[in-house]
Design brief:
α2 packs antiparallel against α5 (143-172). This protein has 2 domains: 2-204, Alpha-lytic protease prodomain-like; 210-363, Cation efflux protein, cytoplasmic domain (Alpha-Beta Plaits, 2-Layer Sandwich), CATH 3.30.70. The model has no long low-confidence stretch (mean pLDDT 83). Helix content is 63%, strand content 15%. The chain has helices at 2-32, 35-61, 76-104, 113-139, 143-172, 177-204, 210-221, 256-274, 291-304, 337-351, and strands at 229-236, 242-251, 276-286, 310-319, 324-331, 356-363. The chain is an alpha/beta fold. The strands form 2 sheets. Strands 1-2-3 form a 3-stranded mixed sheet, covered by helices on one side. A 3-stranded mixed sheet has the order 4-5-6, covered by helices on one side.
Length: 367
């Protein structure tokens, strides 16, 4: 709730500031017949609308989980970001159209000292607003606020370019109005496309942050019974809503009670340190009762890791009585996975023809 209140409060401040800028820029743009200033006002209006949508999305995303959506509504924030990206893109295309019209049928602007002062003040307002919104967004882990803050800082640069073109016309009589408008349009379109791509990546699912993955594995391996952490998967259900699963290697002498106690320790520690809920902890058993198993592991490890496409080897276990060898291999995305597994299988089978060989190909998710 605190996070929600902070986002809404910051968004309301953004709305008020942008509406203020829209009114003054539109008035100045109309009085001075400046297409660049008018387009800058339109851009501020789209920013205000984006903040409104951010508030709506935050309220919807904060709904409590229910039977239909047991993991909550956090991903609505990503849909909100997609809508905002669409608005930004539409504003950019509209601005581009108007700028081209002004290039083909130019109209002379009419600036005054007061106009220049107002534009300069607008640049300062956007700088302060952008830094404030972005810093708050980072504190509460809101990608929407961080994006809004970055956009505001970017707007300050665009407004500064409008001011520069106004100063050039004021002192030298050279009109760059339509061309500056064209430049602003291009940057707005670029920002809209980048926002849309980033949001699509969040919806489709992207690689786990390497730093977070490293920190999680370090925390897990600090447990006294864990001898390796692998196959870490994280599932994102909105900002600050991370679920995950992992495999850990333990000695084959552990009892079910020992493993249960270990799992509970790991889950509590990971949630306390990183805010991630581990929904499942799989077990890889390490042979400790037979030296032959250790020799086999070393020989197979050397064979598997001799290939460039082999990125990691883990989960090795051998049942000497049933003559079964199992292990996992993390394969490079660039290789032919079927061919790689067949090659590894054939080589290990050649080493131990009397054993059943079970090779599990893994995907490089978090390395």
């Amino acid at each position: 709730m605190d996070r929600e209140k902070v986002i809404i409060k910051t968004s309301v401040i953004g709305i008020a500031a942008n509406i203020f800028l829209v009114i003054f820029k539109a008035a100045v743009g109309i009085m001075s017949n400046s297409i660049a200033i008018i387009l800058d006002a339109v851009n501020n209006l789209s920013d205000a609308l984006s903040s409104v949508i951010t508030i709506i999305g935050t309220k919807l995303a904060g709904k409590a989980p229910n039977k239909k959506h047991p993991l909550g509504y956090g991903r609505i924030e990503y849909l909100t970001a997609m809508i905002i990206a669409g608005i930004v893109l539409y504003a950019g295309i509209t601005s581009l159209t108007e700028s081209v019209k002004k290039i083909l049928a130019p109209e002379q602007a009419n600036y005054s000292v007061a106009t220049l002062i107002i534009i300069g003040a607008a640049v300062l307002v956007k700088l302060v607003l952008g830094k404030y919104v972005k810093s708050v967004g980072k504190k509460v882990n809101s990608s929407a606020l961080v994006a809004s803050g970055s956009d505001a800082l970017f707007d300050a640069v665009l407004s500064a370019s409008v001011l520069a073109s106004a100063l050039i016309f004021f002192f030298f009589g050279i009109s760059l109005e339509a061309w500056v408008g064209l430049l602003i349009s291009a940057f707005i379109i670029k920002a809209g496309i980048e926002m849309m791509i980033e949001t699509l990546n969040d919806i489709l699912g992207k690689r786990t942050d390497p730093e977070l993955a490293k920190a999680l594995k370090k925390t897990i391996c600090e447990d006294k019974d864990v001898h390796g952490a692998f196959d870490l998967f994280l599932y994102n259900y909105g900002p600050d809503k991370e679920y995950g699963s992992v495999h850990v290697e333990v000695y084959d002498t552990m009892t079910a009670n020992d493993i249960d106690a270990m799992n509970r320790r790991i889950q509590a520690c990971v949630y306390h340190k990183h805010g991630v809920i581990l929904t499942g902890i799989g077990i890889y058993s390490i042979n400790t009762t037979d030296d032959e198993a250790g020799k086999m592991r070393k020989a197979i490890l050397e064979k598997v890791m001799a290939h460039d496409y082999s990125m990691q080897f883990h989960g090795f276990y051998v049942d000497l009585k049933k003559k079964i060898v199992t292990f996992d291999v993390v394969l490079s995305f660039e290789c032919d996975r079927e061919a790689a597994i067949k090659e590894i299988y054939d080589e290990v089978k050649e080493l131990y023809p009397d054993f059943e060989i079970l090779v599990q190909p893994d995907i490089d998710i978090s390395e």
